[in-house]
Amino acid sequence: MSIIFQAMPEQDAAYLWAGGADAYGRQPETMMSDGPGYPCRHCLRNIGSGEGLLVLAYRPFPELQPYAETGPIFLHKKPCSRYHAAEVMPPVLSSPDYIVRGYGYNDRIVYGSGAVTPVEIIPSRAQELLTRDDIAYLHVRSARNNCYQCRIDRA
Predict the structure, then answer these.
(1) Which of 18-45 are b and which e, b meaning 16 or more Cβ less than 10 Å from the residue's Cβ?
(2) pTM, entire model
(3) Which of 77, 99, 100, 125 is deepest in the core (most CB within 10 A)?
(4) CA–CA separation, 40 and 6 (whole Å)
């Protein structure tokens, strides 16, 4: 099975770059990157030192419901190109491990599917989880802070 790593949708980023509010109805905060540690969820690269960035609350789910986790993310302040590279691990996934968790077709966590996963086996773990009929897609989240990184779908 082929998988695809999905960045934040283009329309979500464009809305924020045009001055739109975040998931809490607030304007994103603006700051300057002082180096690594600010992963852009649109291009899936780290925001370089001296570059402007937005800090905002993001909910990568289509609607509010009890499992629709909302949390902090970073986005380049100036528009960047959305990440496109099917089975290639995004450059932003540079920590030793991440939480990989399955979500059902109802956008709710599939219990028992989440685990802290070493970065080198994320693709094989994703393929394994996506063979299940009860899992529609996966999230990759920080193993330390649970911050949303990207989504994985069947290609």
Answers:
(1) eeeebbeeeebeeeebeeeebbbbbbbb
(2) 0.94
(3) 100
(4) 13
Structure tokens at 13: 């980023």
Both 18 and 70 in one domain: the answer is: yes
pLDDT at 16 over 90: yes
**What are 65's two structure tokens?**
């419901």
Greatest extent of the chain over all pairs of C-alpha atoms, in Å? 45
Per residue in 58-97, pLDDT (tens digit) is 999 999 999 999 999 999 999 999 998 777 899 999 999 9
Do 67 and 117 share a domain, yes or no? no
